[in-house]
Amino acid sequence: MCWSATADLVAGAGIMAVGAASVTLAARSPRDLPLAALPLLLGAHQIIEAAVWHQDGGTGPATLAWAVIALPLLALWVPAAVLCAAPPSARRRLLVTLAAGVATAAVLTHALATRTVTAEIRGHTVGYSLGLPQPQLVFAGYLLATIGSLLLSGDRGLVLFGALIAVGAAVSFALWRQEYVSTWCAFAAVCSVVLTLWVRRRRPPSALAR
Description:
This protein is mostly helical. The protein has 10 helices and 2 strands. It has a two-stranded antiparallel sheet with strand order 1-2. The chain is globular, with a radius of gyration of 17 Å. The N and C termini lie far apart (36 Å).
């Protein structure tokens, strides 16, 4: 994933299939649906990056669509979805991560509306550039909203998912400093298949027996 257009396309299609299974399993649990649908979103995200490869990077619609999902949408989607699915005992602290997501998404949406995001093919990776003001602060808010919400969810399966995403973020930043956003998103997309097991575990035994 992110190694070529073909890799992104194949991986994206496979992850979307997993996402469809997750959504089907969660159909009777509306509170779990936003998280169950996350693999669908991340799979589509990989397919969009295949289009970025085909247009040889640049500033086209595929690049903008990729950035909208990777930046403001996920910053808001993940903490909101975790808050929906979390046990009542965790909801108060998850309001903090949701607030971080709202603020981060607002900053990133403004940046995308007023600046031009560009993609550059760099060997077997794609680098994206937006020129954010105070990127360290924005990145900290993004991490709190996404990884933080998973780790603070109070659910063992979601904590595991959050830990995997945190490891992916660290490895991607260490190995691909210029392209870590793309590689981290690919890693997160692959790890999102864990959510299918999470959804299945949360289904009542009577539903699994049908």
